[in-house]
Amino acid sequence: MALTSTPPNSTPPKTTGLLSAAVVVAALGYFVDIYDLILFSIVRVASLKDLGVTAQADITNEGTHLISMQMGGMLLGGILWGILGDKKGRLSVLFGSILLYSLANIANGFVQNIEQYAWLRLIAGIGLAGELGAGITLVAETLPKEKRGYGTMIVATVGVSGAMLAYWVGEALGWRNAYFVGGGLGLALLLLRVGVFESGMFEQAKQQQGVDRGNFLALFTNGPRLLKYLKCLLIGVPLWFVVGILITLAPEFGRALGVQGEVSAGLAVFWCYFGLVFGDFASGALSQLLHSRKRALQLFLLICGTVVAAYLFMLRGASPEAFYRLCFVMGISVGFWALFVTVAAEQFGTNLRATVATTAPNFARGSVVALVPIFNGLAATLGSPTAPNLVGSGAVVGAVSLLLAFWAVSTLPETYGKDLDYVEVS
User: Fold this and answer.
1) Domain assignment present for 153
2) Which chain regions cross the lipid bilayer (predicted)?
3) What does the pLDDT look like over 271-290, one tens digit per residue?
């Protein structure tokens, strides 16, 4: 029997102001989340060299292994925190995830070998998986429907700037201290728990009899619902193709493109995320001004495709400064992350909303686990094991991920202004 959505009979929950405690804490939580999430990409080369990895090929291989461990942790954490978010509440996930990734990152500052590094990246990944989905869900459910896009825009704009702090701290204090700072920021954020209240929609759903909350498998028991969920996942993949491959491997791409000077992974991440600040602000505002999430996402995906092509085919022999400028523009073009999570949250009822809003971005992030071996294998096929064709592989993987994302956006229902006070029932 097909699953349908029906509104509950209870009174709609109270809504809050645009700069409520929920919005502020979600924004600051995402700030620390992004700091810790991106920190490895910034300190990858320095930390691996300090741990005794010196050959360039080994730095690339160990780096992709460690980021795959981190993203694998996010796949596991996305399911864990998503289910807990619908069963136990948005706040328990918001602060529980912050605590876990903060402790993991403090421990990361003490690692002495690659094996320890890998396991702590896995644990940190599990922790990092929960904050954004819980925060976006909480904000979406507590703000008036006409202001939801502005609330998530604030969360994203503040949050992605955490990557810039990660770069400054990593450069100034070294990679070990940068992990300590990230963990400390997360623990300090836990002090803001006072004054943040649980979502009224969640509290209402919890009181309803016969409502199955946080059933991850319910997303797979109905064809249309599963297809809608898969489309949500596909929207986020291009961002992590850009960040997880094109930006994380910026030094390798710089050499493959003949950039006239050494490209710094840290600076590439810095400029990309600086662009993301503007992109997330613009995409969120545009979705409000156009009264359409879909049109805003379609426009950004088209821009992203154009900029990725420029990165791969127009930087040959360029200066590092020109390379970083394009990283900045590419960051703007993929600045639709919070908008993507908002769309995912708005597609489903209250009893599955946190599950979707948490698993969707983490499965999209975790797509790096699949993208990396596909990218590496295709690069070796198009080139050779000793001289991989990074540019050709990047072009193919990027084109496929962008086309699938554009199809997904174009075929999903519009959710701007949608009433979210309903539950999913059979």
Assistant:
1) yes
2) 21-43, 63-84, 91-111, 117-138, 150-170, 176-196, 232-251, 263-284, 296-316, 322-345, 366-384, 390-409
3) 998 899 899 899 999 999 99
Q: Establish if 317 belongs to a structural domain.
A: yes
Q: How far, in Å, CA of 254 to CA of 262, rounded?
A: 7
What is the residue range of 254's domain?
20-192+216-420
Distance CA 132, CA 124 (A): 14
Is the CB of residue 82 less than 8 Å from the CB of residue 359? Answer: yes
Does some domain include residue 227? Answer: yes
Residue 338 lies in a domain: yes
Using the CB atoms, write b or e for 399-416: b if 16+ within 10 Å: eebbebbbebbeebeebb
What DSSP state is assigned to residue 243? I
Per-residue pLDDT of 127-162, as tens digits, reads: 988 888 888 888 888 888 888 888 888 988 888 888
Phi, psi (rounded to 5 degrees) for 156 = -70, -45
> Using 50, 70 and 90 to split pLDDT, how confident is the model at 17?
low
- Residue 426 binned pLDDT confidence (cut-offs 50, 70, 90): low
- Looking at the 3D structure of the chain, how many domains does it have? 1
Measure Cα distances from 392 to 110, 323, 388 in Å.
39, 18, 9
Question: Which residue type does 225 have?
Answer: R
